Amino acid sequence: MPTALYGKDILHVKDLKLEQVSLILETAGRYESVLAQGGSLTNMTGQVLATLFFEPSTQTRLTFETAMLKMGGHVVSVTDAKTSNLDVKGEKLYDTGRMISAYASLAVIRHRAEGSAQELAEGASVPVVNGGDGAGQHPTQALMDVFTIKKERGRLNNLTITLVGDLKNGRTVHSLSWLLGKYGPRFYFVSPPELKMPAEITASLLEDGIEVFETADISEAAAKSDVLYMTRVQKERFADIEEYERLKDAYVVNAGFIRKCKHGITIMHPLPRLGEIAREVDAYEGAAYFRQTANGLPVRMAVIALLTGRE
Ligand code: NCD
Questions:
Q1: Distance between CA 162 and CA 186 in Å, rounded?
Q2: Residue spans of the chain under pLDDT 70
């Protein structure tokens, strides 16, 4: 049955109303139970998902494609990074959008240029999902992150959440802070001064009455937070490689650090991790990053099914 998401694009988390987010989380929960019980789904039978990944991806592309296959659908994909020379300022992505609409039921795109998903969507008559546009947005990552926080913490409101690392270039933290902002959190944004959260995002949260503390010092935030969301410094966005080298290990979570955090703190990371979380932390029960990546599957199943009206 068509729903509040049928036929829509998801380009920016701001495109989603709270009830639409709730619908995605509920639907994902339902699919998760079906999969956990060994059941199968056929709701996407005969449908085609196009995945256009012009920037590297492991998790996002594989979970989207697996999500489609688990519901009985098919996948066509472009993964040739060389085609990332595609000129988004010209007609090309618009034309790609028109073209794929002739055979695909929906498309997911990842591209190094901000606004690329928007351009594809302008040409496409089928739903388009932004799978990461440069340092812009990554809305389905934020949805799986929120789904994870709800499962790990039992609620979404009244939480203290710390985002750590490359808050300037990290699209996951851009999307996540907009989305979590809907639930009235208390935020710590921890980064070196060079990698601060874009002022536009912080200002908008403050305007909505959200408490935001920006700092370069992780200790107070870690002692007070329910969730610590680590991110990697985004090497591919740096013009100056020496600056990257200087900043890349600014924050490292290891077993000794966990002992100084609030008891029971949940540690998250969108992956891939580099040096930000030592492998010894994986044994800590609050280390949720591999559960977080697994949650990508039911959440992306829900997104695919809801946008195409086949949930
Ligand atoms: C993230 C991304 O691509 O933005 N990865 C992902 O989709 N899980 C995070 C990153 O690359 O650092």
A1: 8
A2: 1-3, 80-91
Query: Per DSSP, which regions of 6-83 are E strands?
Result: 48-53, 74-78
Q: Which residues pair with 162 in a beta bridge?
A: 188, 228
| CA–CA distance, 100 with 92 (Å, rounded to integer) | 12
Residue entry with tokens 């290891």: 254
In the chain, the amino acid numbered 279 is R
> Are the C-beta atoms of residues 231 and 270 closer than 8 Å to each other?
yes
Nearest ligand 1 atom to alpha carbon 271: 8
Q: 140 CB less than 6 Å from ligand 1? A: no
Q: How remote is the CA of residue 228 from the centroid of ligand 1, in Å?
A: 17
3-state secondary structure of 267: strand
The predicted structure's pLDDT at residue 1: 44
Q: Which residues, in sequence order, are CB contacts of 37 under 8 Å at separation 6+? A: none
Backbone angles phi, psi at 290, to 5 degrees: -80, -30
Nearest CA to ligand 1 atom 11: 272
Does the predicted TM-score (pTM) go above 0.90?
Answer: yes
Task: Tell me how crowded residue 84 is: count the other CB atoms within 10 A of its CB.
Answer: 15
Ordered by where they begin, the domains of the chain are 13-137+296-308 (3.40.50.1370), 139-293 (3.40.50.1370)
Distance CA 274, CA 104 (A): 35
Nearest atom, ligand 1, residue 59 CA: 8
